[in-house]
Design goal:
The chain is α/β, with parallel strands linked by helices and about 475 residues long. Helix content is about 40%, strand content about 15%. Helix 4 crosses helix 12. The radius of gyration is 22 Å and the shape is globular. It binds pyridoxal-5'-phosphate. Pyridoxal-5'-phosphate (PLP) binds next to helix 5.
Length: about 475
């Protein structure tokens, strides 16, 4: 299939995830159909070239030019053993990958449970936390804490942790009683500038909640090292140390959801290393294979996994394809490539250039904030160069209508998102060089300038606020 027949067949048969499906098809916008990738660029079915400023939704750490060597790894694995489960049996690739991941993970996080993606990993982590508490004689620890606007996946268990109302509303009562506390968005709070006060307010909100509900009823606190939804929300100094202290004081486990921040996004193997977090469990997916195959996992500390090694206790959770040999072989090779090609070193070396170039965008009147770390950044869009908010109708026009079409026109894959306040987000492949970074930021500037004009946000208006 090609051209219009691909467009037509997509409209007729393919339900797009998290998409206004009605936007495409007869008389609608053309659907962006990507056919080919090379380096940090992708090409659509009309032959147009785009710079991938989002690593295919935070996945393609290595970009697109490693296909040949991953294909060899995949072919060898499929010839040797196409499939075996990790239920009561195992295979060398899952074992070696678990060993390798354990050696890279922080602290005593040494046990790995494989899944097929992020949502499955979050749910598995919840079950592991529950099994730990039940084994410790605390079955009443049934509640959890997560943060507003955070995204932790959409299968019904994971959805309970997600703090995005629009993703939850149609689906009734959450499967798990999760309490959502304030996230770490410093831009929108008045004491955001006074970091210590901000940290202590956030931690005290959690402690007040625990005391009101009964701390002995809580099993888990879930947080990303840097929260994605809302636009790269960095933790203020002392936040993760404070979470650890609260968790220890009240016997609660901490899950760092590293589906995005794991495998180099913040310039370190795990985001926890970069922000000083010491969680009991880490969830990973996306970058684990750099998206050359689907895979996820939960990395669990020895002491949390300990009760699972009691002779008569069965781990009461499993998924058929968790630890699939093909994905495991690819994940192992992904780690080899990271080490062989200095991928983390490159990400760390390029970060200051990216950060400096992005700060230049502050001169545009529609840009209110520029925040991020590693190769994970967001630009918050405002109506007046300060903290002025767009109303719901304006946000819709800006984020849902104007930005996607204008980004495509500029040849830039980036994410315009309004699960929190409206942001333009980027997460370049970790192999990006200065030229790619410049291309991404130049195009962001072009699109943001056009967005300002479209929304009537002018220099004069910004100056008058
Ligand atoms: N957790 C976080 C932090 C995520 O960003 C995502 C997806 O983007 C998920 C969980 C869910 O992952 P998946 O889409 O692979 O189920």
């Amino acid at each position: 299939m090609q051209g219009t027949s691909l467009q037509q067949a997509a409209h007729d048969h393919l339900l797009l995830h998290f998409t206004r499906n009605g936007r495409y098809g007869d008389g609608g916008d053309p659907l962006l159909i990507l056919e080919r990738g090379e380096g940090c660029h992708v090409w659509d079915s009309r032959g147009r070239r785009y710079v991938d400023g989002l690593s295919s939704l935070f996945c393609a750490q290595l970009g697109y030019s490693y296909g040949a060597e991953f294909a060899e790894v995949a072919a060898a694995q499929l010839r040797e053993l196409a499939f075996n489960t990790v239920w009561d049996t195992a295979h060398p690739q899952a074992i070696e990958l678990a060993d390798r991941v354990a050696s890279l993970a922080p602290g005593d996080l040494n046990k790995v449970f494989f899944t097929c993606g992020g949502s499955e990993s979050v749910e598995a982590a919840w079950k592991l936390a529950r099994m730990y508490h039940v084994a410790n004689g605390e079955p009443n620890r049934t509640k959890a804490i997560a943060r507003t606007t955070a995204y932790h996946g959409v299968t019904l268990g994971a959805l309970a942790f997600t703090g995005v109302p629009a993703a939850k509303e149609p689906f009734g009562e959450p499967a798990i009683p999760v309490f959502h506390v304030s996230n770490t968005n410093a831009y929108r709070v008045d004491d955001g500038g006074a970091e210590a006060a901000f940290t202590s307010r956030l931690l005290s909100e959690i402690e007040q909640l625990l005391l009101a509900e009964g701390p002995e009823t809580f099993a888990l606190i879930v947080a990303e090292p840097v929260q994605n939804a809302g636009g790269c929300l960095l933790p203020p100094a002392g936040y993760w140390a404070g979470l650890r202290e609260l968790a220890d004081r009240y016997g609660i486990l901490i899950l760092a959801d590293e589906v995005i921040t794991g495998f180099g996004r913040l310039g370190t193997w795990f985001g926890s290393d970069r922000v000083g977090a010491s969680p009991d469990m880490i969830t990973v997916a996306k970058g684990l294979t750099s998206a050359y195959a689907p895979m996820g996992g939960v990395i669990v500390s020895d002491w949390v996994a300990d009760p699972l090694y009691d002779d008569r206790r069965t781990l009461a959770h499993g998924v058929t394809f968790g630890g699939h040999p093909l994905s495991a072989a690819i994940a192992l090779h992904n780690i080899d490539v990271f080490e062989r090609d200095g991928v983390l070193e490159n990400a760390r070396a390029i970060e200051p250039h990216l950060a400096a170039r992005l700060q230049e965008l502050r001169s545009l009147p529609i840009v209110g904030d520029v925040r991020g770390i590693g190769l994970f950044w967001a630009v918050e869009m405002v109506r007046d160069g300060k903290r002025g908010l767009f109303d719901a109708e304006e946000r819709w026009r800006l984020v849902k209508e104007f930005m996607p079409a204008r980004l495509a026109e500029a040849g830039l894959i980036a994410r315009a998102d309004d699960r929190g306040d409206p942001v333009l987000q980027i997460a370049p492949p970790l192999i990006a060089d200065k030229e790619v970074i410049d291309e991404i930021v130049d195009r962001m500037a072009e699109v943001l300038e056009a967005a300002g004009e479209f929304m009537g946000v002018t220099d004069e208006q910004a100056a008058s606020v």
